[in-house]
Amino acid sequence: KKKDAVDKNLVANYSAAADWSVFPIGTILDINDKNYEICDYGSALVTKKWGMPVVDIYQPSKTAMRRWGVKYFDNVKVVKWGDWSKSAEILKPRLKYPHCRTMYNGIQRQL
Prior knowledge:
This protein is an alpha+beta fold. It has 4 helices and 5 strands; from the N terminus they run E-E-E-H-E-H-E-H-H. The model has no long low-confidence stretch (mean pLDDT 91).
């Protein structure tokens, strides 16, 4: 099974990754009337690279991932904000990675 940033199993069509300086770990998003929880991050998701928030929804296989493809939504709502402090705590030992440093610095502005 695939694991998230805190070594928990990812859940297909529920677990999601994002820039934690935009959506901290534990944030619940409503996208098209379906909830997703931010539990992971990725270097390609750091906002500075894209200019807009990007969310990657975990799919159980490469086939499912290809079938899902790229989707654009304008009706994303935050159901529950996650934990900025926990996000910073998880990222702190990973600051040698540029994307982790970027997210960590962004989170510091939220605290």
